[in-house]
Amino acid sequence: MPVDAERVLSKLNISLRTPTPPSSRPSSRSSQFTPKTPRTVIQLQKQASILKDLLKQRSNSPPSPSKTMLDQIIKGHYIALHNTTLLAQENANLRASNEKIVKKRTRSTKQIPCEEGLTTEEGLQLAQQPEQPAEEN
To answer: Is residue 21 a part of any domain in this protein?
Structure first.
């Protein structure tokens, strides 16, 4: 059975449209920018590059003192984030070390006084008794 081309084409829903031109802004990331306090170096890098791009778009003039000041603020923030990371790691190490010392101090140093050998049951009974000062000889 031959296919009727006119009939097939009439059933298709074809709508011609012109593609929308790209936005007039060269950077679409700037429209997605929501200012938040950067907590990591990566977040700081992203925000700094977005901010620099925005400033570059708005003024095509040579670098100004405000750009230099912005660079110094960003550099200071980098240093602060790195110091915070290093101090947090050092703090975690000190806490772990302190925990080991506390566990070591609380470990029992109880000694069972006995001149001749003990049976297992006698040793267990002596170990379970409340702490008593060792007798001095």
So the answer is: no
User: pLDDT tens, 73-105?
Assistant: 889 999 999 999 999 999 999 999 999 999 888
Q: For the chain, how many structural domains are there in total?
A: 1
Comparing C-alpha atoms, which of 21, 18, 48 is closest to residue 35?
48
Q: Whole-prediction pTM value?
A: 0.46
Q: Does residue 80 lie in a domain region? A: yes
d(CA 135, CA 48): 72
DSSP assignment, residue 107? S
- Secondary structure (DSSP) of 18-66: PPPPPPSSS-SHHHH-------SHHHHHHHHHHHHHHHHHH--SPP-HH
Residue 94 within a domain? yes
Helix 65-106 / helix 41-58 crossing angle, nearest 10 deg:
170
